[in-house]
Amino acid sequence: MQHYFGYIKGKEAYIEEKDALRAKQVKRIQLNEQIEIAEGERVYLCRCRRLHPLSFEVIAEITDTREPPLKLNLAFALLKGDHNELIVLKGTELGVTRFLPFISARTVVLPKGKEDNKLQRLRKIAKEGAEQCRRSLIPEVSAYASFEEIAKNARGLKLFAYEEEAIQGQNILDYAIVGESEATLLIGPEGGFTPEEAALAIDNGFNPVSLGKRILRAETAAIAGAAALLLYSER
Ligand code: SAM
User: Fold this and answer.
1) 217 lines ligand 1 (CB under 6 A)
2) Is 193 in the pocket of ligand 1 (CB under 6 A)?
3) What are 118-170's pLDDT values in tens digits?
4) CA of 186, closest atom in ligand 1
5) d(C-alpha 97, C-alpha 72), whole Å
6) What is the pTM of this model?
7) Distance between Cα 26 and ligand 1 center (Å)
8) Among 46, 44, 47, which Cα is nearest to 64's?
9) What does the DSSP assignment read for 115-164?
10) What's the gap in Å between 169 CA and the centre of ligand 1?
11) How far apart are CA 47 and CA 42, in angstroms?
């Protein structure tokens, strides 16, 4: 079933112009076809009642939410190439609520400011990913922050994926709790965290965790860590 983020007004539902074009030209929506339209974390079953201009009738609210009970803030050090996009795409599918890209001491490619085109692209990926996996909300992609800002302002259960913990550290699943309401997971860059960053995270209440005994690439670590916590929260 097609799924879009749009607006509900009483018994009528609308989607944005560019989504309407896609629905007609790419997805070939038909008259009377049923689709889902999400607004403000709620999802509605709707029927296409006119093609030109495209308009919908609300049939019912879908009460079975696809959002996980855990609100996961995935804070990841900016990576080279298209690995940031991979993290946002896969993290969106897994149910991440908020992505927090940050700059750490070993970040290789530094952005010029707090916002840029790459960040806009990450937001577009989050929106399209959320539509594709039929989520109720579009995960937020925050402006770039420093590692210090992230460490000091983190919310919920604070977890810090630390490569030094790989072999003997506490496994991330030891912190995965059914019904936990919010968590922040920190993932380092290709070169890992510096000892000073590790100390700063711990001083700010982060628990160092292992993602298994092998050293994962940073993007794998972000996806695996998010998968572990989010899947567990839905048990
Ligand atoms: N250069 C580092 C080294 O050789 O030890 C590895 C850094 S790793 C490629 C990038 C990030 O992924 C780490 O900072 C950490 O956040 C996470 N990571 C990778 N494997 C991990 C593991 N087994 N346990 C915990 N965190 C891991």
Assistant:
1) yes
2) yes
3) 999 999 999 999 999 999 999 999 999 999 999 999 999 999 999 999 999 99
4) 16
5) 5
6) 0.93
7) 41
8) 44
9) --HHHHHHHHHHHHHHHHTT-SSPPEEPPPEEHHHHHHH--SEEEEE-GG
10) 12
11) 16
Give the Å distance between the CA of 90 and the centre of ligand 1.
18
Which residue in 61, 42, 104, 74 sits closest to 186, CA to CA? Answer: 74
CA 230 to centroid of ligand 1, rounded, Å: 20
Confidence band, pLDDT 50/70/90 cuts, at residue 228: very high
Residues in the chain, how many?
235
Q: What is the pLDDT of residues 59-108, one digit of tens each?
A: 999 988 899 999 999 999 999 999 999 999 999 999 999 999 999 999 99
**Are the C-beta atoms of 225 and 172 separated by less than 8 Å?**
yes
Q: Ligand 1, closest atom to CA 189?
A: 10
176 pocket-lining for ligand 1 (C-beta < 6 Å):
no
Q: Report the pLDDT value the prediction gives residue 145, as an integer from 0 to 100.
A: 96
191 lines ligand 1 (CB under 6 A): yes
